[in-house]
Protein 1
Amino acid sequence: MAVAGNLNALKELSDKIRQLTTAGFKADLAKALAARAWKETLDGFRQSRDPYGNPWRPLAWRKGTPLVDTGQMRASVSTEATDNGFRLRIGVVYAIIHQYGARVRAATRAQSRGRVGSVPQRQMVPMKETGGLGPIWLGAFNETAAKLIKDRVRGAA
């Protein structure tokens, strides 16, 4: 029994697959995933939902959409590729209060008159404690990685 094939095409495919293990590919993947995380975070702001698709609790003290009154928090979302992946940052000090929720007490007794309030959790990015990446972000990351791999291997016979 004889087998025929194009060894040059097989070598080309092998070389392209080997490129997927290089530092250059890892850096490109980190950049692509960072861009996708940025998009997913902004989608959450636009759709008033957490990373798992659950709507944010409505506002109690004003009309409008949660977390977009001035647009400052949304505009502060940034990403950066790192050696081991990427970093997503929401660059306003009060973002953490919304990400986790908080019980709030007024600074002085005169301001509070004994009242304590709360800020409901309006999660913007996934957390291990609340379900990890979840189907929305995991699907987005898988799609992004698959497209990058396909683009790199495309053209190989």
Protein 2
Amino acid sequence: MSIRTFLTYLIVCFSSALFGQKMQKTEVPKFFEQSFNVSHITPTLSNSLGANYVGDGRLMYVSDRPGITAPRGTKFRLWSMDLIDQKSKRVNTKNLCQVNDIKYNVAGVCVDDSNTFMMVAVNDASMNDFLAETRITLLHIDLSHGFSQCATPPFVKIGYTYTNPFYHDATEYLYFASNMPGGKGGLDIYRVKKIGPNTWGEVEPLDAINTPNNDVYPFISNEGDLYYSTLTSKSGYDVFIYDFGKKSLPSRLPAPVNSRVDDFNFLMISSKDAIVSRSSANSDYTIMYRMLAF
């Protein structure tokens, strides 16, 4: 399966006028003016993606890399990486509902800062033979009682894909990608505010950045900038930045974030550290890379 098809399963033209005046593109932060050492941190012969930083120097992601009990390629499971030694291990998913069910693939995960809940994107692999396209849904896992309670969020509609969850604690917004009705085409990026324990507000499409192509992997930096990837016509998936405050046009990020292959799932760890995923040269695998400034 090619990376383009894979991303469509799991998961640029913009208006340049406002009130008759030309809008400026979002200013790219000084972070990207640094020099980076870029190296892969996941195996080059497996698919690894869906990364989310969960604090304490830990990165959670999904992969079909070999485990103790399963060969590569059988299922996408949840993994954790210690960013100090860059060693990974399978996450113990006991009592995490469908996440622990062998018939489900895991497509992405996010955890709030206080570790009171998780939002996990899962896919029932047994349904693939009956659907023209793999459906992915979100699962809300409440961890606040010392044990897990799992439920489908009320804003999730049957028959559509919901994936790439990212929760921004400062604003209490959950961001995700979906092909639910009301979008511009393909997968679009939405957000929904957490208004109470296990309670969510109205879903908002991010019309300022969504396109007729796939728009995926939202991430909000500490500065409040939105990073995401769009399927472009020239170089596949590229990473863009959008400034909510200035309401400017999105800007494509420079190298080494973007390359000649598909680039997506960008996130900042610190002022000197970032993660990006990209396809292999032959598009057979997805690999996670770390960008360390020097």
Protein 3
Amino acid sequence: MADTKDTSSDMRDELALAARKIAEVITSVFESVDCVREHLVALHREVVAEGEDFTPEHLVQLRPVILEQLSRRPFLDGVGILTAGDLFAEQARFIEWWRHDDDDDVVPLWLNFDPTSVDIYDYLEMEWFLRAERDNARTVYGPYLDYTGADRYVVTMMAPAVDDRFLGVVGADVRMEHFEAEILPILYDLDSAVALVNAERRVVLTNTREWTVGSRLPSMPSSSDANYLGVARIDVESEWVLAALNAVG
């Protein structure tokens, strides 16, 4: 009995350690997000203090900061800002977002913000944007096929920018192929069959064929569920968890 308890405890310790390593990978992306966010807040504060209206033209001043983050962290696919709907009087939707194209050149991201178009990219109504505004919380969103039509599979880390008011969301995209390269070795170092599960209960990555990447679990893994040997939260406000499988559910 003691050996069983020791083994179970060791497994939970290993799972918790792996979760911390995954959190470090995600946190490294948030470092770029936070850098741009801090510059945005400081710029807005400066403009308001001078008695000026904050305009889209001011965001151009942040372009070098965005480009520096893309240069410093080559695994980032894109970095930028999506503004609050009431930040600019004449423009409800505006972005300053730069990304790597298929030739690996850094180019601006263009999205359809025409309110009369059926294809409008209305980020103001998307859950991740509403959550950032409502809860003032970081979000890890995806993986998903990106909105540029390039069929890139990405995961996005986002954080709200606030300066006495909600300014918008700052985010960074990471291609899944780069994310996998960082995360899979952590999973394969574990003796247990594990899966990284996102907030939508979808399996993001796994080290076992018992789970299918992209499949949606019937419920969020829980340590109280007999199907799991253990569950560790990825502590970056992501609501993601790392679950060790006990039996196929």
Protein 4
Amino acid sequence: MPARGTRPVASPANRRDLRGLPAQVLTVGSVVHRIHPEGGSPSWFNRDGSRRFDLSGRYGTCYTAATEEGAFIEVFGRTGIIDPDDIASRLLAVITLEVDVRLADITASSALGFGISNVVSAGIPYDVHSQPWARAIFRAGFDGIRYLLRHDTTGDEVGYALFGSGGATPGPGSSTSAPITAGLLFRCIERWDLQLPR
């Protein structure tokens, strides 16, 4: 069977070969961030179809962000109200990449030519708007996707959906996890006007 990325892979939108998508390479030593449940894996690769860019079968997707604020808002920004008990039950992982990771950059202006819009980053249901793209981008040989975080209304924060073997696997780097600090919490509350329960 030919290696991933060695044969043309048609865009789900217009049949254009996705191997030509704009790319961003995160080099060895780059740092990404992820919030995960306490006791859970900092590099969980989801494959059950419940998340935006999930693959299936043997492979899954680990959802990370460029900044700790991005990781925070993607997990806790769904309602605009922050539950302190939920925050206390999670950890912030800082993952240092030990390999180069080549991402399809669907935030780039030239991604539009392949039929990509911001619906791919934020549309629901996932099995219609995002997962077909994830499968095709994976087949085209990319190691993941650079995308806009749905809950960041500024558009300044980006996520990195990393592909790898499904489940709690080592992932592309080493990680350290620690409790979410009050500093991060209050930076995010101020930036996005989040609320604590009354």
